[in-house]
Design a protein that fits this description.
Layout (H helix, E strand, L loop, with lengths): L9 E4 L8 H12 L3 E4 L4 H9 L6 E3 L9 H12 L8 E4 L14 E5 L10 H7 L6 H19 L4 E4 L2 H11 L4 E2 L18 E4 L8 H8 L7 E4 L7 H13 L4 E4 L4 H10 L3 E3 L8 H8 L4 E4 L14 E4 L4 H17 L5 H8 L4 H12 L4
Parallel strand pairs: 1-2, 1-4, 2-3, 4-5, 5-6, 6-7, 8-9, 9-10, 11-12, 12-13
Helix pairs in contact: 7-11, 10-12
Length: 376
């Protein structure tokens, strides 16, 4: 951590800490790097420890548990952070979880580090309505979206500094909130990742949600009997759409595909180090930390040419970006990378590691420090 003459006391807000994905890893990094306290709702201490953050558990506090069922889960978090007032206790507030952005109302000075600015209300609204909800839920969803759009726009007026994880997210903030956010890419401890000879499997790391299009990956590998796929992903237990999608992808997987719902950070680093490469198919991904982690391990990426992937993956140098991605194009990309690696086993390694270093934690800490201490 950067030492300064007068250290500010920092608090971090995040909506839930019971499923640890990319946004949660960034949040935990905020806490560690800035000696901050974290305020959230639901906490899974075991998962936090397994992801390598056991040293900061004593600085994580719950403001009250919430339901596991959407949208009550999000609504309760929104309400609890709206009522939270710690302005007399801290010098600076970092809002990391998007459903905690209501905490900006009473807590200043603050910064909203937006991962995916309430996508359920804005960017993914039509997608959720069309692809996820039953017919009878759609009018209720419209009402819920209308109310919460009003609330989020009202709360956003209390955000002092706008920061986001990617150019992709920046465009969404400009579109929906009419604000200009500074892009600071998420932190990756690049030196933690290592490169080893592959053990004949491809890797996929993401939440088990429909917008990640994991079923597309499974359908591709079901036609590749000589290839193997390991899928690592958490999901929100008890929430119908997440449970049903998990059940669906498990029902269509073939014997050459393994789904791991949860692994420790140590195990995840090992999986990265020994895979052939990473498959990333998310629809218009906000940023995508998994591709950086795979590149830090010297592995090639196969990803959809959209969203945050376009900001990190260099086509033909650190992997392959696919326009209008589908299962057949995934198969073709796998065959191409396999052929390239057969000719030159080091083809992607050095370029990938070099690219990953651009997203190292040191750069992240420096940029955030400049905001906290008014150096920008």
């Amino acid at each position: 951590m950067v030492l300064l003459n007068k250290m500010k006391k920092v608090a971090v807000f995040h909506n839930f800490m019971d499923n640890i994905g990319g946004a949660e890893m960034v949040t935990l990094s905020f806490v560690r790097e800035f000696d901050a306290d974290l305020y959230t709702t639901n906490i899974d201490k075991e998962k936090i420890i397994k992801m390598g953050f056991g040293d900061i558990l004593e600085r994580i506090f719950s403001i009250g548990e919430v339901s596991n069922i959407s949208p009550f889960r999000q609504q309760l978090a929104f309400f609890k952070f709206r009522k939270l007032n710690l302005s007399n206790k801290y010098d600076f507030f970092i809002i990391s979880g998007d459903w905690a952005m209501s905490g900006a109302v009473n807590n200043h000075p603050n910064m909203w580090y937006a991962h995916s600015p309430l996508n359920e209300l804005w960017e993914y609204k039509n997608y959720v309505k069309k692809e996820i909800l039953n017919w009878w839920k759609k009018p209720l969803y419209d009402i819920w979206v209308y109310i919460n759009r009003k609330l989020s726009l009202s709360y956003s007026k209390h955000v002092d500094t706008w920061v986001c994880n990617s150019e992709n997210t920046k465009k969404r903030i400009e579109k929906y909130y009419k604000k200009n956010a500074k892009v600071i890419h998420p932190p990756i401890d690049v030196s933690d990742y290592i490169n080893k000879p592959d053990k004949n499997y491809w890797l996929s790391v993401n939440r088990l949600t429909i917008n990640k299009r994991i079923d597309m990956q499974i359908k591709a590998f079901s036609k590749l009997s000589n290839e193997n796929l390991v899928i690592v992903g958490c999901y929100e237990k008890g929430t119908s759409q997440f449970e049903s999608y998990k059940k669906y992808i498990e029902s269509i997987k073939t014997d050459n595909i393994e789904i791991l719902n949860w692994v420790s950070r140590e195990k995840l680093i090992e999986l990265y180090s020994e895979c052939k490469g990473l498959i990333a198919t998310a629809r218009d991904e906000d940023f995508g930390m998994s591709v950086i982690e795979a590149m830090a391990s010297g592995k090639p990426i196969i990803a959809s040419n959209e969203g945050g992937y376009k900001e990190s993956v260099i086509n033909d140098r650190t992997g392959i970006l696919i326009d209008s991605i589908n299962e057949q194009k995934i198969i073709e990309a796998i065959n191409k990378i396999e052929s390239n690696l057969y000719s030159d086993s080091e083809k992607y390694k050095n370029n990938s590691i070099k690219q990953a270093k651009k997203f190292d934690t040191k750069e992240f800490v420096k940029s955030i420090n400049n905001i906290i201490y008014n150096k920008v």
